[in-house]
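Example 3.2
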Amino acid sequence: MSAGAEAAGTLPFQDARTCKDWLAALPLTNIPQAQALVLDALRALEASGIAPLERLKALEIMREKIAFLQHEQRARYFGKSLPLSASDASAWSTGAALLQQMEQGYRTCLARGGEELAPHRALMMQRALRYIGAQMLFHAAVYRRFDPALWTRLHALYREAEGLSLGAEHVKDSLDAAEAGSTILETYVHAVLMQATYLSEMTPPQMEFAEALLRLWMRKVSLARPAEGTAYPLVVDLDKPIGARPLAEDATRADLRVVDVEGLSRSMRKRVHALQNGEDPAAVGLPLIAGVDALSQLQRLHRLWCEGAPPRPPARPSEVKEVSLVFGFSDIHFFVSAGKVFEQPDRKRELTRQEKQDMEVFGQVTERTASRMVAEHNFVAESWPVVDEMRGSWRVERPRSGGKSVSIGRLVAMRMGEAGTFYLGVVSALSQEVDGRIIATITLFPGKPEAVPVRSGDARHRTTAKWTEGFRLPPLERAQIAGSLVVPGGIAARGRGVEVWQDGKAREAAGYEVLDHGSDFDRITLA
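Structure, written as tokens:
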């Protein structure tokens, strides 16, 4: 809090009308300054004795401006690799404080409103619930754990609204595109379902896709009491500071609520079937978000929301204490190929002056010259401590002095210990712990990788005719795992061929399916 907000009489307006005038005069050429001013004003409003109705009107006026400011700052942290820079982390902290203060503002209206605000109780509850859900998502945007007290407040507020029979009452919401506005039930279920998607495993575009689906179909979801002897894919325990979980046991306690997803499931299954039959996502009314494979995400979300996905296997201590990690295609190629710098396979590189001197004197390029040239490329493998491991995955901690940032869906090469083979994998989950540690889950692909030059087989889709780094993963017949190819993002697509340099010439491989769609790569099977 700034010194101005702490001092008495710092509220920069007296009522809703002057609040609107004050907001109009904010310096929008300096978004961080505007955010700080609004945050100070919210804190001063909380401490003020302003009349209840004027307090509520002021919050309603401020929420649109706050939404605008949050949107303007969103690119500072949403989709950024971790760790954030100091300035971006500060921008995120200010945004989180604004959301928290807005929740508190509506809670104060509920507590102090009395008979004057009684007709607006459903609106105030819906707003408070919305800002709790927004705080949860705001943490997910940077893969940061939030205080479980958010769940406690969310559940308690919904239970109170349910007891007052306000859950289905529609309230206007200018931040909701739907003309009918929203309800307490819809706002609560939105928060519950978004948190049931394992956000720590999703890229920012995938998060946007899930939110867009819920905006389309939220009214198809409801809550009910569980019936005896029935299993459910998602059930909320209002007495516990956790989200929805599958319920496979008989339970009819009064504090349980079943998330009824039957209507949502029908809509999702209909689109999955259409996409599998070659329909275009836009033609079946799905949101179009760059970097998202609509079919795979629909299938994943259906499993989590509608099928009662089984719990993840427990982690166990690892015998491996440290792993070496390499990020980026060029660096990975160097380490996978045992120290070879990638070169165009269809043309000879012009030798450097030192290489020519070596050839004249020794008949070959000396190891000293080669090592010096490699050092100029600055290829790096970092050592990351191992936290624990699961089947096929390792959770590792980013060193505080590490030089590499990390993001979901990024290709990585990993070696157990100080020597041995580098295997390919993907950053499949991220978590910023409360103590600031960054924990990444690395899921490895099966098979020992081989470095191979690749490029798009369709010249129309090439930005350049040059070859680039790729990797071949062999088939594992005993495990019934097909061979695959890992290529940079943008090269592979369903129905488009990929050229691989093999045995001294280009060979086109076609008829593949995408196994993994990462943020900087695709892993595909070849016919």
